[in-house]
Amino acid sequence: MKTENKNANKHAPEGNNTNNNWYDWEHQLDENNKPRIHNGDKSSIAADHWNRYPDDIRLMNELGVNHYRFSIEWSKIEPENGNFNIEAIQHYRDLCDSLIKNNITPVITLHHFTHPIWFENLGAFEKRENVSHFIEYSEYAFNNLKDLVPIWCTINEPSVFVSQGYFNGIFPPGKKDPVLAATVLENLLYAHTKTYKHLKGLDGGDQTQIGLVKNIFQFEPLRRWHLLDWVFSNVLNNVFTNSTLDYFKKGHSIFLLPGMVKKEMKNTHAVGAMDFIGLNYYSRMHVKGQASLAEPFLFKKRPQDIQTDMDYALYPEGFYKALHTISVLKKPIYVTENGVADRGNNIREIFIKRYLYALNKAIQGGLDIRGYFYWTLMDNFEWAEGYKMKFGLYEVDFKTQARSLRESSNLFAKMVKKPGTDSRGYIVNIGDLAPNFTMEYSTGEKVMLSDLRGKVVVLQFTASWCSVCRKEMPHLEKDVWQKFKDKDLLLIGIDRDEPLETVIQFQKEMGTTYPLALDPGAEIFGLFADKNSGVTRNVVIDQKGKIVFLTRLFEETEYNQMLKVIQSIL
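^ thats the sequence. predicted structure below, dont judge the formating
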């Protein structure tokens, strides 16, 4: 039986959460009586994103990003089995609302290594019957956030969860059992499949994208000439990557560790059970095989490789390969994580250049890549590594919680904001004061933008030759102009560089009633976007003259977000 709890648990996954499996883990000692987390670090309040998210959203705006992927904490939302916390889910609604108002699309991950301690005590994903608990939590979160969140990730890195928690024993539950590891992996993939099918069948499910996040590490032979290095590299690639991809591609895969475990995983319902696949990529591992039953292989570094603080080699070629590897699922790809631990700011800039070059090369080669998420916005508590690893574009002083953009991150900000580097081409940003100008309507009336202060103004950049504009304009007429024109809103079409007679005929053909203004030489357009970029874009300006939303092309999710922003500021 489901119940809802209004009493807020004061601890959060974004720091100081005492109700999940990781809190227990970080307060334990290992078999050698040493802390399980580097340097005995505790997550404590971490970066305190739970309380500081309004400021962190401002940091996102400074970077110019338009999507934000984050995890919601199961143990906050369902602190007891079947008992749901209304205040916790409202917090996430407030976060999503704030993101949308800042023209940032929320992307939610339902499970990122942590879950409630009550779920852990039930055996978590070691038992197939426990998957129903995950589905129930996912349904509750989805039903309460689906109107704000268009993109959902079910489970983050199932192979990492298994390898670190059931092989290496450095993540909870700290077991080293290959047979159990195979079972947990199968249950995680089954959980994704069942959750995907269930959420897609709910009201609004067909309007959201739901996918799985897969980490890829390539395992390559240290010695190209050595048979054992090749054998163990192939074994590890099959276990870590191919077993998961085959599960969703064929509905059948084999988890094989010779001499330890062979498990067939079958689920015909899994074939194609995702709207997208998320790729997390960092580097490769070099494998050295050896004739030892106790330790059949080792991971070794190559001296010529550029190493990051995480002992991951700089390897953008592997990123390119991983994009092609995961494309076998024939689903759109989101790069959900890609980043570098670089405390000394020595290689972050070259990392950004080389990995984004590899990404662009893959896009130019025809791969359907829909987005790229850098890991991470700011320094964080990095699991078993604690606070040692500095992945953040923004440096965090964990004593004061002060955030500052790293010098080596400036390149990323410039590349994101540079006009013409993507399909948007804007030279203005959310939060900017809109450039002032005088426009002339097709009726001959002249209006200065600054004279419209006190009204919400929507500038629609359009042209008669633009087919996407023609598709969008009836919707703007109905959803914006007719709905809000009596509520201090003015929708103005800015026709790009066409003569008066063409503009008049254009409006007649479209049957729209909102005013169209002339833009000779695209001078007004050039105040907002690179003149070499296209029309079909909307600029929403609030009552104080500040830009609060930007769209490009007639994309359903973005268009609906614009409507929500307009409604929220009227």
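The domain at 3-216+302-417 is CATH 3.20.20.80 (TIM Barrel).
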